[in-house]
Specification:
Blueprint (H helix, E strand, L loop, with lengths): L19 H7 L9 E7 L7 E4 L2 E7 L1 H13 L4 E6 L19 H12 L4 E6 L13 E2 L2 E2 L2 H17 L3 E4 L6 H11 L6 E8 L6 H6 L21 H12 L4 E5 L5 H11 L3 E5 L1 H12 L5 H14 L4 E4 L2 H7 L3
This protein binds ligand PBG.
Length: about 325
């Protein structure tokens, strides 16, 4: 749809830009606090509640108690969903990754604590083995190979333990094949009919995850890269095939990750499928904006707001972002 325009001067585009009120009227896309999912890092211990992540200034690892407190504050700001990532103590990381489905693991305790403190907060949990794996990989590693089918069985166990703990949205970030169908079937058969799956369908093997791996303590452990399971950044059609596959296996919502370098993928997914589509503004994107702002090289508040609004323009229904509380405050909640 390309509308015809009368020639200049009958048409003057600047008329629609002449004042804040008129610009607001002509604005096509908007960002609201309801569009934001806040990723939060959980750690053991009590006492000092917060530990700042060196490569992500302004982002903290929080104890379970502090996560519940943060959820209360987020709810007051109008944020409706929190996504949990555990910083598993090193001694609990093993080759069999059993901590991933321990009902008392950090993620499950934090889920219950949030649900007690703020029952209306939607809790999303991450399904992948990397925070529990001695190898730092999302799946089991045998002789240097990341096993698919054996990993899927473990992911199903992890999914059920998260659903038991009260998670509303399960977020598989592992990129194994066949996981969505297996997880959906298990959830149905175990009475978790309303638990949603937000699939990390198009997750790329990206350099922009670096600060996250520091945050969950997986950076040191990781041997090699994740290129045999995460997507090649050169691919676009493949993202559509992955989304189609995940929807056919029972995903409710899909995600593109990272965000800003992949807005073209967001747009294609939304146009093609029209399903709830999310982008993850990942740790490296956050770090770049924050670092440049702290150096005085860009206006951090404006860069944050612009980067998030542009996800909406690209077709996303919502965004996972470490800026969530700050953005919510800026939106005047
Ligand atoms: C791993 C996982 C990663 C992120 C979310 N889940 C990192 C990875 O794949 O290595 C990245 C999030 C971020 O960078 O903010 N299952």
């Amino acid at each position: 749809m390309t509308p015809l325009h009368a020639p200049f001067p009958l048409t003057r585009f600047r008329r629609a830009r002449q004042s804040p009120a008129i610009r607001a009227l002509a604005q096509e896309n908007t960002l609201g606090t309801g569009d934001l999912i806040w990723p939060v890092f959980v750690r053991e211990g009590d006492g000092v509640a917060q530990e700042e992540i060196a490569s992500m200034p302004g982002v903290y690892r929080r104890t379970v108690d502090a996560v519940a407190e943060a959820a209360r504050e987020a709810a007051d700001l109008g944020i409706g969903a929190i996504c949990l990532f555990p910083y598993t103590p090193m001694e609990k990381r093993t080759r069999d990754c059993a901590e991933a489905w321990n009902p008392e693991n950090l993620s499950n305790r934090a889920t219950r604590a949030i649900k007690r403190a703020v029952p209306d907060m939607a809790v999303m949990t991450d399904v992948a083995l990397d925070p529990y794996n001695i190898d730092g990989h999302d799946g089991f590693v045998v002789d240097g190979e990341i096993l698919n089918d054996e990993t899927v069985e473990a992911l199903v166990r992890q999914t059920l333990s998260q659903a038991e703990a009260g998670a509303d949205i399960i977020g598989p970030s592992d990129m194994m094949d066949g996981r969505i169908g297996a997880m959906r079937q298990a959830l149905e058969s175990q009475g978790h009919r309303n638990v949603m799956i937000l699939s990390y369908s198009a997750k790329y093997a990206s350099a922009f995850y670096g600060p996250f791996r520091d945050a969950v303590g997986a950076a040191g452990a990781l041997k090699g890269d994740k290129a045999t399971y995460q997507m090649n950044p050169g691919n676009s059609d493949e993202a559509l095939r992955l989304v189609a596959r995940d929807l056919s296996e029972g995903a409710d919502m899909v995600m593109v990750k990272p965000g800003m370098p992949y807005l073209d993928i967001c747009r294609r997914v939304k146009d093609q499928f029209g399903v709830p589509t999310f982008a993850y503004q990942v740790s490296g994107e956050y770090a770049m904006i924050r670092a440049a702002a702290l150096n005085g090289w860009i206006d951090g508040d404006r860069a944050m707001a612009e980067s998030l609004l542009c996800f909406k323009r690209a077709g996303c229904d919502g965004i996972l972002t470490y800026f969530a509380p700050e953005m919510a405050r800026a939106l005047g909640a």
